[in-house]
Amino acid sequence: QMQLEESGGGLVQPGGSLRLSCTTSGLTLDYYAIGWFRQAPGKEREGVSCISSRGGDTVTYSDSVKGRFTISSDNAKKTVYLQMDSLKPEDTGTYYCAADFPPCLTPVRFSNWTSFWGQGTQVTVSS
Question: pLDDT tens digits for 18-27?
Answer without folding.
Answer: 999 999 999 9
